[in-house]
Amino acid sequence: MGNSIHFHDQYLAAWNEAMAAGDSAPIETFLSPDYHGWLGQEAAAAEPFDAATARAGFGGTVAALRGSTVHADFRTVTPRGRDEAVVFYEMTYRSGGEVTGRALLMESWRLQDGRWQLCRDFTEVNVGQPAA
Q1: Closest Cα to residue 98, out of 122, 54, 68?
Q2: Is the pTM of this model over 0.90?
């Protein structure tokens, strides 16, 4: 899996493209058809969601934060065989030089039909102080 960082770099580039345009379509192309996730502000209280809910959430986020950028800090990509990977990182949303939001993510990715797709994730939003 020599290109594992590369696929995730493409995902982050899609986020920044979406944030610039205010349209979440670039991000949505990475979702697996069977995608599902969990979202919370506390580890003990996460709510499950499906791909349709994720698409709506992405749309709301890029519309509300249009013009901001996303950044991945402390990223680790761990292979789980040739066709699977788990990615852990802190995503920060920035406007100018200021951090306006923070999320901690754990994502499960799978190579399907020659493309890396996001299958599931766990996201904690706006927890603690952003990294320096």
Answers
A1: 68
A2: no
- Pairwise CA distance, residues 118 & 132, whole Å: 28
Q: What angle is formed at CA 37 by the lines to CA 52 and CA 129, rounded to 5 degrees?
A: 115
Helix (H, G, I), strand (E, B) or coil at 64: helix
Q: What is the pLDDT, as a whole number, of residue 130?
A: 53
Per-residue pLDDT reduced to its tens digit, 72-117? 999 999 999 999 999 999 999 999 889 888 999 999 999 999 999 9
What residue has token string 């788990």?
86
Evaluate whether 37 touches 49 at the Cβ level (below 8 Å).
yes
Q: Tokens 């990615």 — which residue?
A: 87
